[in-house]
Amino acid sequence: MSRTLTRLAAAAALTAVAWAGTASPASAQEPAARIHLLHGIPGVAVDVEAGGEAVFENFEFGDTQDLSALAGQTLAGLQVKAAGTDTVAIDAGDVTLPASGNHTIVAHLDAEGDPALAVFTNDTATIAAGQGRLTVRHAAAAPAVDVLANGSPAFTNVLNGDEGKADLPVGTISASVVPTGATEPVVIGPADLGIEDGTSLIVYAVGSLEDESLTVLTETITGLGTAPAAIQTGNSPVTDDAGWSFTTVAALSALAGASVLGARRLAVARTR
Amino acid sequence: MTRVPRSLVASALLAAAALSGCGAGGEGAGAPEAQPTTEAPAPAAGASGAPDPERPTSPLAGQVEELGSAVYDPGEHVADAVAPTGLRIDALGISGSAVIPVGIDDAGELDVPGAADVGWYRYGPRPGEPGVTVLAAHIAFDGVDGVFRHLDDLRPGDEVVVALSDGTERRYRITELTQNPKSELPPELWARDGTPRLALVTCGGSFDRSRRSYDDNVIAWAEPA
Predict the structure, then answer these.
(1) 0.95 exceeded by the pTM?
(2) Which of 3.60.21.10, 2.40.260.10, 2.60.370.10, 1.10.1740.10 is the CATH number of B6-16+75-224?
């Protein structure tokens, strides 16, 4: 137990450092941060309280909580309890969330199967038109892996806590995860992944190889795309055709009618 | 196997650590050994997500939004093959122009096809998907009138029919026409949420002979009929 607590303390300390590093110089009044909390350890549910009051309950594996609205705020007296019980699992004290940036915090297992904590900063750089971003994060109790895209290595030697990232043309790729340097056994997949224009797809490998609980979680960040700069739909003047349009035809008819009338009036005038 | 229970215990702590700026207290030490199973996530029989009536809700709860499960769903990654293939606008005498999927050219501009065809911006929403499906065609190209020669004759209520690659059609009604300088395309043209709308885009305004280009874009907006 003491080992776990030590690890947790270390993880929490790391988190604090990461957050301190991303805190903005207190300028924005509106929270500019995007902070998601992802539960990436199979088989456990918890309740989270602040000051003895429920913030969210029955937080289960795979679920996501959006903490963005709390960016920059301090949560006083934070406690976590096993779901549905009053058993305090941790007494966290007062916690201040980061004020800016785009982060995903993942509770997961490290390579040895021990709980660990990862704070990932998400790449929100603009993506070229016709491309999407694929990020694969190793958050599972498994050794170094390669990620194959359509059978070919896309990201190699990815260690627990690390990520592989690339901007790819839109479409669907078949992804699988294998031990690094090998093509089998496939430990995750093959799984189809949709690469969408201007969208960042983040895939988390989670669970445990030994416990045969390996699986993936996904997260998307949209709105990173590049729209066409302009639409050029004419390089010559239009012709003076009679038109295909009913309205044009009608207008021309009316014009023609007016001309005839005008000609008659003129003719009448001249005869006088 | 002592690993499993330890993981379980620690994971409960971890969620807290994720939120925490400080180290774990000693309180968690009592809970762990009680649940040596990987089977069920909820240790208490009555815990099905319903709040404990004796536990007050924090004001913070209203600011935390549950986003649902991040568990991989293969169905979300199935390629949608339905694409627009044809366009019919009776009011303009357009009886079945081909619609071609297009991207962008080297200049980063929409890769509009020749005078006789309509280009669909294939990186944007497909017909029926949330957001704006963009169809663009020339008003005139290399001295030949284009498919959208008379786009600005459209009026609210006019019907637009888009044929799809699966043999079905989608019907729209024109809602309004807008005109903008070429360099100021309305951002909503690239919307990817909201009502599944259609935008028919061509050129308009004055033709600048020196630049061989029109000053403006004309956009006819349509909503599902």
Answers:
(1) no
(2) 2.40.260.10
ipTM (interface pTM): 0.74
Tens of pLDDT, residues A141-191: 999 999 999 989 999 999 999 999 999 999 999 999 999 988 889 999 899
* A60-69 pLDDT per residue, tens: 999 999 999 9
Question: Which of the residue ranges A72-81, A199-208, B28-37, B50-59 would you say has the lowest mean pLDDT?
Answer: B28-37
Q: Write down how long chain A is.
A: 272
| B30 in contact with A, Cβ within 8 Å | yes
Could you count the other beta carbons within 10 Å of the beta carbon of residue B7? 25
Instruction: Please tell me the distance in Å from B86's CA to the nearest CA on chain A.
Output: 18
Q: Do B55 and A231 touch (CB under 8 A)?
A: no
Q: CA neighbours within 13 Å on the CB side: how many for A168? A: 23
CB contact under 8 A, B13 and A89: yes
* Ramachandran angles phi, psi of B32, nearest 5°: -50, -60
Cβ contact, residue pair A233, B202, below 8 Å: yes
Residues of B in Cβ contact (< 8 Å) with A61 = 41, 71
Q: Which residues contact A251 (CB under 8 A, 6 or more apart)?
A: none
Contact indicator for B17, A107 with CB cutoff of 8 Å: yes
Top residue of A97, A112, A233 to mutate, by most chain B CBs within 10 Å, is A233
- Find, among B54, B12, B4, B15, the residue nearest to B31 by Cα: B12
Once rounded to an integer, what is the mean pLDDT over residues B2-25?
37
Read off φ and ψ for residue A54, nearest 5 degrees: -70, 125
Indicate the residue of A38, A58, A248 with minimum beta-carbon distance to B49. A58
Residue A90 · residue A80 · CB < 8 Å: yes
